[in-house]
Amino acid sequence: MISKLLPAPGTPRVLMFATLVNTFGNGAYLTTSALFLTRSVGLSPAEVAIGLSAAALAGMVLTTPMGYLADRRGPKQVQIGALIVLAACFTGLTQVHHLWSYVLIACVIAVADATVKAANGAMIAGAVPPAERVRTRAFIRSTNNAGIALGTLAGGLPLLLDARAGYLAVLLGNAVTFLLAAAVVTRVTAVAPASAPPGRPRMVALRDRPFLTFALLDGVVAALYNEVLSLALPLWLVAYTSASVALVSAALLVNTIGCVTLQVWASRGTHTAADAVGVARRGALVVAASCVLFGLSAGRPSWLVTVLVLGASVVHVLGELWLSSATFAVVFDLAPDWAQGQYQGVHQTGRQIGNMVGPPLITALVIGWGAPGWTVLAAIFAAAGLVAPHVIRWGLRSTTRHTSAGTVPAVRAVT
After folding, report:
1. Is Cell membrane given among the entry's keywords (predicted)?
2. In whole angstroms, what separates CA 291 from the centre of its chain?
3. Which of 13, 91, 391, 406 has the fewest CB atoms within 10 Å, measured from its CB?
4. Strand, coil or helix: what is 252?
5. Distance, CA of 272 to CA of 275 (rounded, Å)
6. Cα(260)–Cα(264) distance, integer angstroms
């Protein structure tokens, strides 16, 4: 019974535990970071935005090369190194007193964080049989959401204290969780470094047009569905309904419970990019339906707004889970076995681009246009659901998907 609630023994379970430790500290930091930087460090909101923008740019430029490094040096070693760098960065944040030191550390954090994710994906691809990769990745995502949720609760106390000592405790505690996660990762089976076969470009992911297209499309779609509850919904409730903003917490709780408990269920039957074609379409159309439900709440009585918002939240999380499952399958399956790290890096870059485009787009639609904006947002998701299958099939037809002499086997774990 317990085995059904956990990934396979060995590397999958170790990575799941490392993720739980790591994301607990991240959740606490994310809860307190804005107030720490403004009230304790003394930065203005504009300066915080400058640091975050610089970090996003650094991540977009360097994530793919770091994924390439994970392939060449081995994802286990690169992930451990990135976790140690993150521990040093969060310790260094305790000494930040002006903008430029914050910008520097924020850039290193962004690159190291993306490196951890890329190396983590490469490690799963190298140490887990192909049929179990998506399921393992689903367990990791469930654990990620659980860790952040628990960390968010823990970060509430420093917020109540609103004292520098409390914020510093969160930073140092987060640094410790990175070191603990690095210690846990040392227990996984090492994945052998891989080199490009003769005649193949080293940075093959940057020449793979179908995959680049998918990474960009998926990045924008993921940014939009992530911002629906955290950004669009609170602004919408204030501007266009009479319901309490506390309804946002209920919607986020529905999303968190769904992501923690149902992600593995949603990934069933999705093992390859071919399997993901229908799953991606279904997920995008379901998220589109949730946007229609959110839009129907304009000007309704508070009780009806509550019903519509909670119902839309349930629909939304189901679509999100299917989209995530499809993404896992596509990223693993379209990448050559010797380039999993750099493909994971390109996918992370797509997410970073989406995170830059998503917030202003969704704010302009929902707050600028009101209910029609939700309809347009639904149309964007529906269009993505119709386009994604063609992009995935394009990737499956691409010659970069054919293995050649000298390609490493699908599972290349070494003791």
Report:
1. yes
2. 21
3. 406
4. helix
5. 5
6. 9
Mean pLDDT rounded to a whole number for the chain: 91
A 10 A CB-CB count for 302 gives: 13
State the pLDDT at residue 410. 43
Helices (H), 186-232: 209-227
For 280-289, b/e burial (b = at least 16 CB within 10 A) is bbbbbbbbbb
Residues 304-351 have pLDDT tens digits of 999 999 999 999 999 999 999 999 999 999 999 999 999 999 999 999
The pLDDT value given to residue 401: 54
Q: Are 170 and 158 in contact (CB under 8 A)?
A: yes
pLDDT for residue 287: 98
Phi then psi for 191, rounded to 5 degrees? -105, 130
Map residue 399 onto helix, strand or coil: helix
Backbone angles phi, psi at 354, to 5 degrees: -60, -40
- Please give the backbone phi and psi of residue 98, each rounded to the nearest 5 degrees, phi first: -150, 170
In sequence order, what DSSP letters do the residues of 284-346 get, joined into one string? HHHHHHHHHHHHTTTT--HHHHHHHHHHHHHHHHHHHHHHHHHHHHHHHHHS-GGGHHHHHHH
Q: Which of 15, 402, 400 is nearest to 201 (CA)?
A: 400
> Does residue 269 sit in helix, strand or coil?
coil
Which DSSP helix (H) or strand (E) runs through 105?
helix 99-127
Residue 231 CB neighbours (<10 A): 17
Q: For tokens 């992930």, name the residue.
A: 79
Angle at 227 between CA 370 and CA 241, to 5 degrees: 35
User: How many angstroms separate the CA atoms of 22 and 257, rounded?
Assistant: 19
What is this structure's pTM? 0.91
Least confident of 40-49, 130-139, 204-213: 40-49
Rounded to whole angstroms, the Cα distance separating 218 from 280 reads 10
Angstrom distance (rounded) from CA 117 to CA 159: 28
Identify the bridge partners of residue 413 per DSSP, sorted by sequence position.
191
- Cα distance between residue 153 and residue 118, in whole Å: 27
pLDDT digits (tens, 9 = 90+) for 358-388: 989 999 999 899 999 999 999 999 999 999 9
Per-residue confidence (pLDDT) for residue 6, from 0 to 100: 81
The pLDDT of residue 4 is: 67
Rounding to the nearest 10 degrees, give the CA dihedral for residues 149, 154, 160, 164: -120
